[in-house]
């Protein structure tokens, strides 16, 4: 019975309602090129000028967006890879077909994030601006890793994969689904400005790069199926270990900072662990 349910859940993720075409890649690439041309026209390709042309806009946005600091600090954690993985563990259990695109997209986004941060090496706001001029929520993030926003890349990568895999059939659902996920991504991106961690262009470019990473993960995931060939009895132990590791890391975060989002993350992991243990019990019995 469990195997039939597992098979049914897997086949429902084979999305035939949305097919990747070149336009999906061309639009974000066009916007990134337009953004680069805009910076060039403003002579803002150097680190100093890049920060200078955004300084006033950043300070204004930061002031208005930081009115609810606790909320902003909780929401911004959705761009943390650990939090995203923890919330998706249950989805990986029930919808195994999402493994390939999600794993590949995450790897691609990590490569983009790390390499571009090192390439541009733009100082973060607390390192480049007077800290008395804007609001910093949580620990002040310093260093030369502002462009692009890694949290924004992570959340848009994940949302793009979810958008494609679960794209609905009905037009009204399509619009609601797309706008809902886009709104979540924008909100999380804006929290990076709210807490004083990134400039506006950091999060704009991060969102576009995350979207492209998600598309590439989906494209490669449709051709790579080795993970889905794994029998659940071989796959679930890996997920079990992942949940335990994530739980330990989240507990450590709770000790350091008692945020609501961390407690919710731990509850999600606990539920997944319970389902995994129950799954083993069913397999051993039947």
Structure description:
It holds the Pfam family PAP2. It is found in: Cell membrane. GO terms for molecular function: hydrolase activity. The chain crosses the membrane at residues 20-39, 71-95, 102-120, 149-167, 179-201, 207-226, 238-255, 261-283. Residues 99-218 form the Phosphatidic acid phosphatase type 2/haloperoxidase domain. The chain contains twelve helices and no strands. With 286 residues, the protein is an all-alpha fold. The protein has a single domain, classed as Vanadium-containing Chloroperoxidase, domain 1 (Up-down Bundle), CATH 1.20.144. Helix 5 (81-94) packs antiparallel against helix 11. The relative contact order is 0.16.
Q: Which stretches are poorly predicted, pLDDT < 50 over at least 5 residues?
A: 1-14
At CATH's second level, what is the architecture?
A: Up-down Bundle
Instruction: Round the mean pLDDT to the nearest integer and report it.
Output: 88
The total of helices stands at 12
Write the element-wise H/E pattern from the N-terminal end onward.
Answer: HHHHHHHHHHHH
User: How many structural units, i.e. domains?
Assistant: 1
Question: Structural class from helices and strands?
Answer: mainly alpha
Tally of strands: 0
**How much of the polypeptide forms β-strand, as a percent range?**
under 5%
Main beta-sheet annotation:
none
Identify the notable features of this structure and list them briefly:
mainly alpha; PAP2 superfamily protein; membrane; 286 residues; 12 helices; Vanadium-containing Chloroperoxidase, domain 1
List the helices and strands and how they pair.
Blueprint: H1 2-11, H2 22-41, H3 47-65, H4 69-75, H5 81-94, H6 99-120, H7 125-128, H8 150-165, H9 171-194, H10 200-221, H11 232-256, H12 260-285
């Amino acid at each position: 019975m469990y195997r039939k349910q597992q098979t049914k859940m897997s086949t429902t993720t084979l999305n035939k309602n949305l097919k990747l075409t070149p336009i999906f890649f061309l639009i974000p690439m066009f916007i990134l090129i337009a953004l680069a041309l805009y910076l060039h026209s403003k002579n803002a390709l150097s680190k100093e000028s890049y920060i200078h042309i955004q300084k006033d806009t950043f300070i204004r946005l930061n002031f208005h967006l930081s009115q609810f600091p606790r909320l902003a600090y909780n929401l911004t954690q959705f761009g943390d890879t650990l939090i995203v993985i923890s919330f998706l563990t249950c989805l990986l259990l029930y919808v195994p077909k999402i493994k390939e695109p999600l794993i590949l997209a995450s790897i691609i986004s990590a490569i983009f994030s790390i390499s571009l941060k090192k390439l541009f090496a733009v100082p973060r706001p607390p390192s480049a601006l007077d800290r008395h001029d804007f609001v910093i929520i949580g620990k002040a993030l310093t260093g030369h890793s502002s462009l692009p926003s890694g949290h924004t890349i992570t959340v848009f990568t994940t949302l793009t994969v979810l958008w494609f895999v679960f794209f609905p059939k009905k037009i009204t659902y399509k619009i609601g689904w797309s706008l809902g996920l886009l709104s979540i991504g924008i909100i999380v991106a804006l929290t990076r400005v709210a807490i004083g961690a990134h400039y506006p262009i950091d999060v704009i470019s991060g969102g576009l790069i995350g979207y492209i990473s998600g598309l590439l993960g989906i494209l490669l995931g449709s051709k790579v199926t080795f993970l889905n060939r794994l029998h659940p009895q071989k796959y679930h132990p890996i997920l079990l270990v992942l949940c335990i590791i994530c739980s330990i890391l989240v507990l450590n975060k709770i000790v350091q900072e008692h945020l609501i989002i961390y407690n919710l993350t731990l509850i999600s992991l606990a539920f997944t662990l319970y389902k995994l243990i129950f799954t083993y019990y069913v397999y051993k019995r039947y």
